[in-house]
Amino acid sequence: MILRVFFYLLIFCIVVPAPAFSQQAYNIADTLQQLRQVEIEEDNEVPAAAIPLLTRLKHDLVALFQQVLNEGGPGAQASAAQEELLRRLQAANIQLKDWDDWIARPVYGFIHQLDVTQPSGHPDLMVFRSAIFIQCDDDSSIYVFQKRKGHWDMVIAVESN
Fold it and tell me: CA torsion sign, 48 to 56 to 22 to 18?
């Protein structure tokens, strides 16, 4: 009996593909690596090569966050969602950087901040904010999710592209 259970578990682990979140996190890591290859220009303008990569990075981050929220179910809490998001990014070897790290070597391709909050008195809302380093500043985005019929939908997205 024990041997049979072990055999079925072994088959299950081999046949079932890796969770989708792993691929999303690795896609984010790949985009970050591509952004680090972009040359910084002297005029403080965002290089044309960085713009689609920054957009893709923001969209992949919010998609990963929404996946974390929906896997957490309708009772998802902000702190737990943020911890799980960071855990998945760390599994793909992605670390957040602070200003001191960035100023020492100004390049694109680093995430500065990821915040998850739940507005007081609104358990049906969740706010996700990302900040990505760009030359002389950061590229921040904010997204509001609302719990509807047992899952979380994005209802507001504010990005600067």
Answer: negative
